[in-house]
Amino acid sequence: MAKKLFIKTYGCQMNVYDSGRMADALVPHGYAVTDRADDADLVILNTCHIREKAAEKVYSELGRLQQLRRRRQEAGDDLLIGVAGCVAQAEGAVLLERAPYVDIVVGPQSYHRLPELLHRRARSRNAALDIDFPLESKFDRLPEEMAAAPGVAAFLTVQEGCDKFCTFCVVPYTRGVEASRPAIAILAEARRLVAAGAREITLLGQNVNAYRGAGPDGRNWDLARLIRALAEIDGLQRIRYTTSHPRDLGPELIAAHGEVAKLMPFLHLPVQSGSDRILSAMNRRHSADEYRRTIERLRRARPDIALSSDFIVGFPGESDGDFRATLALVEEIGFAQAFSFKYSPRPGTPAASMRGQVNDRIKTERLAELQALLAQQSDAFQQATVGRTLPVLLERPGRYPGQLVGRTPHLQAVHVAAPDAGPGDLIGVLITASHAHSLAAEPIASAPVVAPDPQQGRAACA
Ligand code: SF4
């Protein structure tokens, strides 16, 4: 009988993708995926180091798993515990000192070695630790067969690591330098995903638009070239990519937004701050005006593009004037969606030891002011969609009979009663109402079922 594997995923979409690939690596070795930790033989925590106190949260969860293991052992059973992801990479051997009952610690570049690590653990009294940056690529070693169907909207990692070294961020230390997969391997994986039912693919990378992968023509392809090749795949209807750095959004990629109908008109482009002084302290390597000009070019190429961003408030040294510059940039650009956080130090990053750490009360006040403005813009964006007809890609059944949940080209969730349709269908709908995080719609036969013309109508944003 197959042993049961439960993977708990924290953090970003890249971790979601990695968890799927870990399952792919283990299923051929006698594991079957379960969605319950309670009856698993192996539990892996796929961790994220971005949020505050990430490591402490992992240790608390490990404490709970240790208790689960005791209960299982009392019942004559056992449980293996693994830690993967960025906390595993950052903590390494320290993790095994603090939680000696953990069986496997594996960094993000070594998932293909999981079966070998399990064997090593079975043969030894010691835990198996692998946080190398191996010379061989995990992507070349992971099996092609998928442990689970990808769903209508699938993720595909094309790039990993980051060379930007923003002073607040741990990614360059946990994921290593920028590395891109060869285009031919990505195209092959995309075809397999489409054959398995995917209709939308989001290309993932810590710094995805820095993609420079070997092309089948012997040249290095950039992300724009890769997107154009993916757009040729029959059955693939939508392409997205995340997360991008403003400095790497070059003319070719901007042109692709204007010319590739399958590339959806929604872009997450983190700016973090509207103050040049703070952007420089963050080592972001672009100014607020350069960000503005990039957005202008994007909007010229794709007038209906909607934008999302990340903001950090209360970065060390941020004055009230710096914060006002962030508000001014938000007012000027208008975001459909955004993620905003108070700055919190990450151990080992340069910003953690900078002078001028901002008082928490001030951070809280600034964050509330920024979030009020962003919420107003996002509400206005949602409201402006009401009354429009849009193509919606249906992803899954909704809560009610006949109801389905899908997404607009701008990534808005839509609930639609469409008993004759199913997941994977691209249908035309009339948006009838806007709620906090979703839209309501009704199907209309005459609505467009292809992506809107890239040159039509600007997305409304306050
Ligand atoms: S570009 Fe993104 S991933 Fe890279 S260091 Fe900066 S914040 Fe981190």
Helix content range: 25-40%
Task: Report the span from N to C terminus.
Answer: 57 Å
Q: Which word captures the global form?
A: globular
Q: List all distinct small molecules, including ions and cofactors, that are bound in this structure.
A: iron/sulfur cluster
Strand content: 15-25%
Alpha carbon gyration radius: 23 Å
Mean pLDDT: 92
Largest sheet: 6 strands, parallel
Unreliable segments of 5+ consecutive residues = 455-462
Structural class: alpha/beta
User: How many individual helices?
Assistant: 14
Strand order of the largest sheet: 2-1-3-4-5-6
Task: Give the strand tally.
Answer: 21
Structure report:
The protein is 34% helix and 22% strand. It is an alpha/beta fold and 462 residues long. A six-stranded parallel beta sheet has the order 2-1-3-4-5-6, with helices on both faces. Strands 17-18-19-21-20 form a five-stranded mixed barrel. Residues 455-462 have low confidence and may be disordered. Iron/sulfur cluster is lined by residues 162, 164-166, 169, 171-172, 206-207, 245.
